[in-house]
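G., before I forget:
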Amino acid sequence: MMGTVNRSLALAENTFLDAIRNRIFLGLLVMAIAFLLFSTLLSDLAVRGEAERVVLDFGLFSMSFCGVLISIVMGVILLHKEVEKKTIYTLLSKPVSRIEVIVGKYLGMLSVLTVGMTLMVMIWVMLLASKGADVRIDHALAGFLLFFEVMIVAAIAMVFSAFSSPVLSGLFTFGIFGLGRLLYLIENMLDSSKGFFVNNPGLRGPAEVFVWICPDLSVFNVSQDLLQGIPVTGAYVGSAFGYAMATVVFLLGFASVLFLRRDFT
Amino acid sequence: MTDVAIQISDLAKTFRLGLSMKKVEAVRGISFQVNQGEVFGFLGPNGAGKTTTIKMAMGLVKPSKGSIEVLGGHIEDRKTRSRIGYLPEHPYFHDYLTPVETLNFYGKLFGLNGAERKSRIDRLLDRVGLSHARSRTLRKFSKGMLQRLGIAQALLNEPDLLVLDEPLSGLDPIGRKEIRDILVEQRSQGKTIFFSSHILSDIEVICENVAIIQNGKIRSFGRLEELLNSELSLVEVTCKGANPDVLQAFETQGYRVDRLGEYDRVIVEGQANDALSQLLNSGAEIQSVVPKRDSLEDLFVKESTRQVDEGKAA
């Protein structure tokens, strides 16, 4: 067991080094910071008293968008690069299992995302404070929720990159992310007694299956709650964490099954 | 403990390529074994199925049929893999790392502790001649330097079995000599070495047993000496002052006679006693008697030609 942990950590460390020395990651991080700083410019244009709300809302959007972008790009690139550059040959000849490779890569990616998200949340909180906002624990909790979301998105990217090309993996992951964010809308449409699924009953079945298997990412977006002053509770964050962990374990298991079946020609 | 390092039985691999899922049989039911402690050469032209076979032996590609046993176990078994050193063809590494970081990473995967990793890394970098570049990132390495690092990582776990895919490619003559010396050194330590190469002279120098694969099938397999001796032997006799009538008689008998200035060279099939007696009796002065054995290259070319002929006949 310790051997598995040590090997996964060695792989995670290697992935972390790969990512932070990658110019794409640094570029995305700079873009994220630029987005956050842009929110202060926007806040200057806002009507009096709304500056804090602009920084809060646009900041959350920027962190979510950039965090997801980093997790998709890194999630797709890091595993694919190992195969594309054929470093996987030497790696898999060592006493390391393919499951450990998936877990190690994911942990490495998570450590990169931790660095990125922590930096973004710190800048966002400082910007909020500079606008005279009352910085509360809710803001940090919102940051945690965004992190849980990027954890899931990174795991989805791992699933696709375990068998597909980077471009397709990126597109599929982004598609699942978009649908995951809008899943509550599809659920509402399915519950409705009129509308799309009543007019197209043939699509109801596939839509119900999709709603069942697609991660519901809207649970990690609390910007409306924060704007309306509704507190984000520890219990809510705890249940969101449990949901994220269960989803990640399932996705990594699926990625491992795909990776186990793969030939490295 | 088994005496067989690698046992390959009826191994086959079929790939399906493109949207049409066209079948390509890369390896077609091959069987051979590599004994422990021997140096085994795996030969074949490009596209013959060498690398696919090696990748199946290393668990990178799953066989369509047949089985592979490595060091008495299965390649998926972690204990088996911890006893193997593998060098892929044109080894690839993370180019943002230095050689020390690379070997340190692999050392961790082998479960070596910090002190052991450090001592082995220092020793291996010195052995493969990369000590001077230990802090340089790999993106600044030449092809030959990467090949040397590839050898170092294959030796990191002090393996019982070395599986090397074209270990001498990309090296200059001095580099080839150095790596060949390392392989000979490993052989003297009782390690098993299974390697493929296009450089036939190297295989001829190092290997005891060989297998020649062509078009996914094993064409020749066995002790190198026997394979070469099984081919027709020739003896080359060089002499001076031979009687022209005797030389004429040799030509009539079908021997090849070359006139090289004041010397004559007679190439005799089988044993040369009769020819030597006739030359000596005719007053010739024998300069040299050299048995001409087919080289591995001759054997390789013959096998290739045979396969082409078989293909045409079919």
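The two ends of chain B are 45 Å apart (CA to CA). The mean pLDDT of chain B is 87.

More on Monday.
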